[in-house]
Design goal:
About 65% of the residues lie in helices and about 5% in strands. Strand 1 and strand 2 form a beta hairpin. Helix 4 packs antiparallel against helix 5.
Length: about 190
Amino acid sequence: MWNGFDRRRQRWVPSARLARVSGATVAARLAAGAVIHAAWALGWRWPGGSDQAFADRVVGPGADLPSAGATWGVVALLAVAIGAVRMTATSDGALPRVATWGVAMVLGLRGVIGVVTDFTGGFDDIYEHLDLAIYSPFCLALAVGAAMVAQRSFVRSRPWSPAVVGPAAPDRSDGSRPAPRAAGLPIRL
């Protein structure tokens, strides 16, 4: 699951497979969220049925529904987030990686704020129950997945990284170290 501890950077590095799976999973879940928000912008009122029941379950008790334009804006932001996460999972570009860190931070902040406000505000309404059971954990899980993708991309873009060079070989019994290798190829000095 993890490549191990990167001694130079003093941080854990997700494996390449875990980062690929996380990138695909986070992008698919963000796409599902974008589809649901688009359906809401077109007038679908699930969960709830009526406008007020829908607002009580999705926005909060006593809140008004956001406009269709604002909901389409959320769809557009989710599309940008999908692109950033997918590009970060498949390339080493700095801009997509920064955008993916932004996605992770926004989703993580939303998840933490949701949990804190649910516990401090009480559990009087259905929204708090849904937020604590579904919305906040979902945001936190997506934030962790996006952060793993961004972290792996950062490590992958560094030439000194164990993700690029490979793990350090153990010392030989005579105290010498084997010849350095980059991506499985010997380096001639």
